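Continuing the series of single-chain predictions for the mutant panel. This is the parent chain; the variants come on the following pages.
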Amino acid sequence: FRTATAIKSSSFLNNNVPLRIYDASGKLVKSSTQHASLGTFIWDGRDELNQRVAPGVYFLEYKTNTGLIQRLKLTMLN
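Parent structure:
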């Protein structure tokens, strides 16, 4: 993605789903709590300080409805 990406999951339909985004080195870049909103999480490529992150690979982590941890690879482009 270049400016923003949307991730859909039925897990996001539950209230207060904790989400974390890590860079390729494992550093926490962004954390958020997803509230029920049509099952979609939108990340605008910004970190905790609202700064644009560098192009590269990032990982989104969250718990599913069954309690399993789901990890998705995201690639930020120039």
